[in-house]
Amino acid sequence: MTNVALGLTAFLIAGLYTLGILNIPLLGFGDPLGPRLLPSFLAGAMALIGVALIVEGRSLSGIREDWARFRSYLSGQDFRVVAAATVWAGLYFVAFGPLGYLLSTALFLLGMIGLFHRGSKITGAVVSVLFAAISYALFAGIFAVPLPRGILPF
After folding, report:
1. Distance (Å, whole) CA 2 – CA 64
2. Is the pTM here over 0.85, yes or no?
């Protein structure tokens, strides 16, 4: 079952990649296939990998074993940690514009460090705030990268 799921995922990625390839503009000069040729080979290779994974993963006993492992994974601690981290990352992306880079990054790191680091909470908070402040100063100040300001005045 795992190989079948991976094969279907490979097909999905190859399809999305192909849609991206078709959006590459053709230039009026030079080889018209130039910018599309290599990406087309990569998409074809990804589709072939998908076929190979689906063919390999079609044994019935393997599907039963994979479903049992998958159900066990869904009910275990690992899945809850991955789900919590995924939801937290999604909230970070949603909050990035309204709260701004500095505040949203500090809160995101505070939550992630709280989830994964079992040491001092004060150290985690200091690292979160310092990383957000130093990276903001580096990107916005030195490299002049426009970052969302959010609710903070600077």
Report:
1. 10
2. no
